[in-house]
Amino acid sequence: MELRRLEYFIAVCEELHFTKAAEKMGISQPNLSLQIKALEEEIGTPLFDRIGKRIALTDAGEVLLRHSRGLFQNLQNAYHELGELRDHQGGRLAVGVLPSELDFRLTPLFIDFHHRFPKIRLKIVSTIDIARLVLDTEIDIGIALIPPSDPRLVILPLSREEYGLVVSERHELAGQESIPIAGLKDLPMVMYPKGFWGRELVENCCREHGFGLHIAIETTSNPSMFRFVGENIGATVQTRQLMMSVNDPKLRFIRIHDHPPVRHMGIVYRSDKYLGYAARQFIQTVRDRLRDNE
Q1: Contact criterion met (CB below 8 Å) for 214 and 133
Q2: Are 270 and 136 in contact (CB under 8 A)?
Q3: Strand partners, 93
Q4: How far is CA 258 from the centre of its chain?
Q5: Does 293 score more than 70 pLDDT?
């Protein structure tokens, strides 16, 4: 069985369209069809159901797709390991991080890592969809809110972080050390848009206690959010760790003393992915900087 035919097969599975798959692989559609037909003849069973202009995987196709992806993942692992031997502990690393963490908190970590390991080529992806990108092998490692359990993922817990109210030094609550969760009700808030995990986590906690947040401004930008708060346009609900990384003397953190929203951060990677030198060193760096007993 030729590896090239398996690559063509995977492309058709991903596109479910012969013409689009042929364009993706840089060959003609008739040639691609001949390659898939030859693969089906070699296996002795159809891999696709042809329903008019539509195609769908057969049960045999599903089996071959699963094992083909595993085969190419193992080959990629081998290439990475051999590359390390050739490059003398260099390599490449793609890391996914939450946008809210990249602007302030994690950028110094990446700078420190680069200074320590300048041969490692870093690609940093700012995204809220970290688990999916890890599973699709578009990134090697994610630093994220711990996702739901998935047997394909390894999750290394890093920290437990409580949310609190962040206000301007001029805010009416700025002198308070703590408030109850109900104290968030009706306060004008500056928050990330819906779909951001931190926003959803905080709002779910508030709904459990019988109220919703009053959102005055939504922004995807960390710097702008804290700028709005610093100018006393609204408050926000964030972790102390994130607020401290902003290092703005105009901001005050007020603890939620009864039922604070809590997030659990972790390192995420595929269970079947080879962890090379670059990945191992990065994981150790992150755990040293962000783990609970820091």
Answers
A1: no
A2: no
A3: 122
A4: 30
A5: no
